[in-house]
């Protein structure tokens, strides 16, 4: 019975859903526009003297978000690894209009560091109203061509746990103020793009985590998920960030296309959406069209990407911030990567084994025909058992 029901629904549900969406789309769009207009004029949160904690605030989208909150008169807590860079952002934020700014050098993938900067923010300001998680790290390598897998956990730590830990620590204080969490996600969490496998996986996990958390919080703490396509950040301006120890290492990455919308506009949209209480901020919106293709006609989306990728010349790849792209030698199909710290840990060619198995002797080992001789009489033992020393168990 269940199989029959599923078979019928497989045939009926997709076209019926498309028809309903076609008729309901104008009405739903009007409702959404009306709600957004009302929130923009009558329900926008006043950020004057509110406390905003921003992770990843030393550059890129985190820096621009700090400036947007500064224009609204908020008190800022800027968190990142590079303290010197945070001082530059702090001075500019004060000039723009921030009431007060404190900077804290911390690592968001360490729970103890997250507890420290949230505690310092609460001790200084007495509250936390918005937590903005922007720490992120991308890559542009083909998964099968990676030679050093030590970058794998680093990518997942920054893109996933670097958001979860600050959220976990700040939630009790956000409950007190009915505050809001702002998440910097990406369209790659559902749109498959080549050379972004681990980044896409981390962003997908991140979005699903906050979607679930939204239901758990039941409106006590708001959540705004911001998704973007390619934007003009440091990632697309030819630089990547790779953290080593307590310092931020800058490496050059020549492969990432520098196209997409302006970073400042996206930051303005995020802050405006968070203050309106929007659940989602998308930049640009037309990326959602691909979601329909993925759900209803996934082969069309796959064929489109294959067609776009077929126009590329030699295949190039790189690791996160540890070298520039190197072309593949198509004659041998072996990619040569230049890494800091020596060659890859694995041999370039697989180990060679002998074609023939090891040879064993044809004849079994020779044993003596006669058994060993034992004494005719058994050994003599004392008639009485040996005497053992008596121990006091209580003393032991």
From TrEMBL:
**Might you report a single GO cellular component term?**
membrane
Q: According to its UniProt record, what is one Pfam family this protein matches?
A: adh_short
Q: What subcellular locations does the record give?
A: Membrane
Which GO molecular-function terms appear in the entry? oxidoreductase activity
Q: Where is the composition biased (Pro residues)?
A: 372-385
Tell me the segments the record calls region Disordered: 338-386
Membrane spanning stretches: 12-33
Membrane topology, record value: Single-pass type II membrane protein
Report keywords, A-Z: Lipid biosynthesis, Lipid metabolism, Membrane, NADP, Oxidoreductase, Signal-anchor, Steroid biosynthesis, Transmembrane, Transmembrane helix
Q: Name one GO biological process term.
A: steroid biosynthetic process
Q: What is its main location?
A: membrane
| Source organism, top-level taxon | Eukaryota
Q: Does the keyword Cell inner membrane apply?
A: no
Q: Which InterPro entries match?
A: Sc_DH/Rdtase_CS, SDR_fam
Q: What is stated as this protein's family in its record?
A: Belongs to the short-chain dehydrogenases/reductases (SDR) family.
Per its record, how is this protein called by name? NAD(P)-binding domain superfamily
Origin organism is Arabidopsis thaliana x Arabidopsis arenosa
